[in-house]
Structures are given as C-alpha cells and as structure tokens.
Amino acid sequence: MAAADILTRLRQDGFAVVARDGRVVVRPASALTDDHRALLRQHRQDLLELLLDPDPRVTCVTCAHYRLHRCGQHRAALLQGSDIAPALAELPQRCPAWSPRG
Ligand code: SF4
Question: N or C: which end of the chain has fewer CB within 10 A?
Fold first, then answer.
C-alpha cells in the first residue's frame, strides 16, 4: 500500500495526521487499532516524507467517483469518456475531480 493510500485511510478513519519535529503524529492515538499501528510502523518514513512534501497525485481506486472501471465524474475530471482501464486506476495522476472515498 502506498503512503498516500495509508494517509487517505487514516484520515477517512477520522485521524488527524501531521508531521511534527521530524515525526509522524496521529491523533487521537487512543483510537488506533493494531492494524493502524502496523501500517504506521511499516510506512512511518514514507508517511513522513509525504507529509513534508505532499504529492498532489491521486489514484482512481481511492476516489469516491470510481466504480467498476468507470469514472462517475469524467467531464469534471477532463476525460473524454467514463472508461478507466484497470491498469490506469492504480496509477498516480493529477485529477481536478478526485474526492476521497467516504
Ligand atoms: S474523478 Fe478523477 S480520480 Fe476520480 S475516478 Fe474520475 S478520473 Fe479517477
């Protein structure tokens, strides 16, 4: 799982995630599950780098508008059609219509 996807998951799960004094700080820490803690342990450095230098690219598979290889907002995403090839769905890209899955 990419750092951006982990960050999206943590934020969707209700956590505030920031970089502070060279560390990844997640609040409320008391709500972290064992799965969250394992992800943080495995990807702490990647998360820190992402928080310090955010990548503006997103993936369709993390987008609320993505359904079964189709984009539900293709005009706003500046696409010619709604089809999204499976290989492209996981490719980081810039998209003006991306919205996090809720
Ligand atoms: S809005 Fe953008 S990121 Fe979302 S599914 Fe469509 S093309 Fe992908």
Answer: C
Ligand 1: centre distance to CA 8 (Å): 15
Query: Are the CB atoms for 36 and 28 separated by under 8 Å?
Result: no
Phi/psi at 11 (5° precision): -70, -40
Model confidence pTM above 0.90: no
Exposure of 34 by Cβ count < 10 A (0-12 exposed, 13-18 middle, 19+ buried)? Answer: exposed
The model's pLDDT over 16-50, given as tens digits with 9 standing for 90+, comes to 999 999 999 999 999 999 999 999 999 999 999 98
Distance from Cα 4 to the centre of ligand 1, integer Å = 15
Q: Which residue has the higher pLDDT, 33 or 102?
A: 33
